[in-house]
Amino acid sequence: MFEYAPAPESRSVVDIAASYGLFINGAFEAAASGGAFKTVNPASEEVLAEVAEAGTEDVDRAVAAARRAFGPWSELPGAERAKYLFRIARIIQERSRELAVLESLDNGKPIKESRDVDLPLVAAYFFYYAGWADKLKYAGFGPEPRPLGVAAQVIPWNFPLLMLAWKIAPALAAGNTVVLKPAETTPLSALFFADICRQAELPPGVVNIITGAGETGRTLVEHPDVNKVAFTGSTEVGRQIARSVAGTGKRLTLELGGKAANIVFADAPIDQAVEGIVNGIFFNQGHVCCAGSRLLVQESAYDEVLSSLKRRMATLRVGDPLDKNTDVGAINSAAQLSRIRDLSEVGSSEGAERWSPPCELPAQGFWFAPTIFTGVTQAHRIAREEIFGPVLSVLTFRTPDEAIEKANNTPYGLSAGVWTEKGSLILAMADKLRAGVVWANTFNKFDPTSPFGGYKESGYGREGGRHGLEAYLA
Ligand code: NDP
Question: Which of 34, 100, 276, 299 has the smallest number of Cβ neighbours within 10 A?
Answer without folding.
Answer: 34
